[in-house]
Amino acid sequence: MLLRFQVTNHASIRDEQEISFVAGDDRPQRAQQPVPGTRFSAVPVAAVYGANASGKSNVVSALAWMRAAVLDSFRHWDPAGGVPRKPFRLRPDPGAHPSTYELDLAVDGVRYEFGFTADDESIREEWLSYFPEGKRRKLYSRAGSGPESLTFGRSLTGRRKVISELLRPNALYLSVAAAQNHELLGRLHRWFRDGLRTASDRDYQARLNYTVGLLRGRDRRSQDALIDLLRFSDLGVTELEFREPDERLLEETKRIETALNDVGVPFRVDVPDCHVRVQHRVEGGTFALELDEESSGTRTWIGMLGPVLHTLGSGGALVVDELDARLHPYLADALVGMFQSPDINRKGAQLLFTTHEASLLGTNARTHLFRDQIWFTEKDPDTLATRIFPITDFYVRDSGEAKDNLEKRYLSGRYGALPFLDDELLRRMADEIAGGGDSGAGQTVEAGRSQAAGAA
């Protein structure tokens, strides 16, 4: 499970910001899980609200980048290419400021703290501790870019020195150790690979491929669950059908990718695993439509089914950017409810999502989000840097007859994180377009000539 994520200097996030999954209250009506070795629990869902361009998507981007660094830094990053990070750029000399990423998580009943700091050239720091029996023990720490900067705790056994000799300045030790089949560190690496998943518009094809992969697999229960969710959505869809991909197209794409990568040009194309059509049953029979003929909401729902079912079925965390995009509020509400419900979410799965859908906070929502599950993003008006803060910074009643209507309070500006709309600019715009056209342009030119003549 994911317990805490902290990031400094990523995209619009300039200063240290944090999101926590640690529950503030005990709520038996939600699928919260005990945190190993503590008296705390972890919430199953966390929602991030904020205005456009406030930095919500960069919360997802930061987690996705940290995951990519763990999975790719040793195997795929150019040894001489530095660190492909995304620092905050709205200040002088952004390259002079390092970026830091840190996670608290639990894997196989043990809690870990893992993090690293990087600049444009190398990994400057890296650390990993764990808490067997609730007591903190150091596994390793790194205070520089080279192997000599590593120190190891007594709890870390295995070929740690051999692994350190393979370390590059721009690679994480965790990535190197996993590539060398280190048992303990490989377990943590697999959590980043299999237990932390992201969903955004950028990875739609990969998500669709995963959804279709469930249908093509041998697990009949997963296939039935997927079809049930298709029909549950009331989109008029009864089945998905697929046709195997064109092998010649796959081979040609692979050849182009290999050729470009061999000459130092990173290139990758997500080729569909197969051709997908959507079946609809109507009065006259069953008919199939091409996937691109379906509404954007239908395509979005189909693309989400694979990651949602896999996460609910195996545990781990799913991080979704703009959950409500192209989905009806009832569907977004139902998706959140799957993770919130103890009856449906039986493996401790977690959902972190960004959204504008304020109805999820309202009293009419199917799924009730509590105060320790709601976060906001705002941009500082002077620096344009993102600030992340929880609704618990405000007094909120979320139980009993006196429960606050969070939707109403949010939309009325009680918690901030709303766009500031300057009505004076609208009035000015109305005056400008009302007097627009060629005559307006001519008046402006004549006025400029008169001013020039007066100055002369």
UniProtKB/TrEMBL annotation:
**Keywords noted in UniProt:** ATP-binding, Nucleotide-binding
Q: Does the keyword tRNA processing apply?
A: no
> What Pfam families does this protein's entry cite?
AAA_21
What one GO molecular function would you report for this record? ATP binding
Q: Which InterPro entries match?
A: ATPase_AAA_core, P-loop_NTPase
Region Disordered, annotated ranges: 435-456
At the top level, the lineage of the source is Bacteria
Keyword Glycosyltransferase listed:
no
Q: Taking every annotated instance into account, which residue ranges of this chain make up the domain ATPase AAA-type core? A: 45-361
Name of this chain's protein: ATP-binding protein
